[in-house]
Amino acid sequence: MKTYLVTGGAGFIGSNFVHYILKKYSDVRIVNLDNLTYAGNLENLKQIENNPNYIFIQGDICDSELVGKVFKEYNIDYVVNFAAESHVDRSIVNPEIFAQTNVLGTVNLLNCAKNSWEVESGFKEGVKFLQVSTDEVYGSLGEAGYFVETTPIDSHSPYSASKAGSDLMVKAYFDTFKMPMNITRCSNNYGPYQFPEKLIPLLINNCLKHADLPVYGDGLNIRDWLYVVDHCKAIDMVLTKGTTGEVYNIGGHNEKANIEIVKGIISYLNENVDKEITKALIVYVEDRKGHDRRYAIDPSKIKDELGWYPETTFEVGIKNTIQWYLDNDKWMKNVTSGEYQKYYKKMYEGVKTL
Ligand code: NAD
Ligand code: TYD
Known about the structure:
- The protein is α/β, with parallel strands linked by helices.
- It has a domain of 240 residues: Rossmann fold (3-Layer(aba) Sandwich).
- Helix content is 43%, strand content 17%.
- It contains 12 helices and 15 strands.
- β5 and β6 form a beta hairpin.
- α1 crosses α7 and α4 runs parallel beside α5.
- The radius of gyration is 20 Å and the shape is globular.
- Nicotinamide-adenine-dinucleotide binds next to α1, β2, α4 and β7.
């Protein structure tokens, strides 16, 4: 039985990953370590909170004493590090917390993993540290070309710079100590449980409220969208089958200009939900500082080596996603009103952490 330490498991991708793994395997244990920032939401995990194979610990990945205790108490085999400050706009306003959580937090996890896993001959059998990273570390593309694993790191935003810093620390633990690891670099994710500061859930929420849809700059920046469950499947494959020490890019060849996403969501909601939702809601606003123009992943390596492919087309994924937000309007209301934070305070009142 493998025990996973999933960090940031109450966030968007982390919670999807916890659901994915508990559905796929019956003989695993997941310890979710999350300090529940604004982006952490235990409502995302409501359906599995009583699963005997799932343990939640409220705590900070930067806390060396706590993380050390987690490794001792739970005999961790895999670390899947999702915990991060993840929003580019916030990183422009407040870069320090990005360096703190994303770089120093990752170093603390690496250190605790090394202390726990090192044996005389090297490292214990069957352990691995998987760093969940982003294509944004590669910087920005022109009209042609794709990011491959050997594309030089050229991050621009404080967010992507902090992710690049943490990737390099993970690589350093492999190069220096031979600590078993992989780094995955994924393109933009969409799907259920995404905090509505990111483009797609923000647009869905604003459309339904008949509020403005802010489009940065000319709306022609391109992102390469991947359905979150396909990302979770890729992480599972890299963790269990990936060659130690390797980086894997994850993306579904699904490039869209931002304005296409905006217009697509408007038309879907207009046709299926509310005839009053109109293009007039689009408002072109000042561009993001240092706004990367285009991201596009070449996923050949993970396809050829591990047989991964994205199962969900954008047409299906975006419909599922919109429908999920429509079916879960209470979730969205709780997030936008701040009510979700009361849910976990109530739930964990009196429950001691390690
Ligand atoms: P998110 O912001 O939704 O979730 C982050 C989670 O980390 C939250 O639950 C938060 O409470 C937790 N967290 C933050 N600081 C912490 C700390 N110090 N200690 C413990 N927990 C902490 O982020 P997401 O979109 O789910 O992204 C998860 C990971 O995937 C991040 O590392 C991100 O860089 C990476 N990634 C995201 C995307 C994307 O499109 N969202 C794409 C590629 C890679
Ligand atoms: P975002 O979801 O923040 O992801 P990232 O910056 O990590 O790619 O933004 C996706 C794209 O949408 C990006 O080009 C910025 C743009 N954008 C807008 O035009 N308006 C918005 O309100 C937001 C949040 C993003």
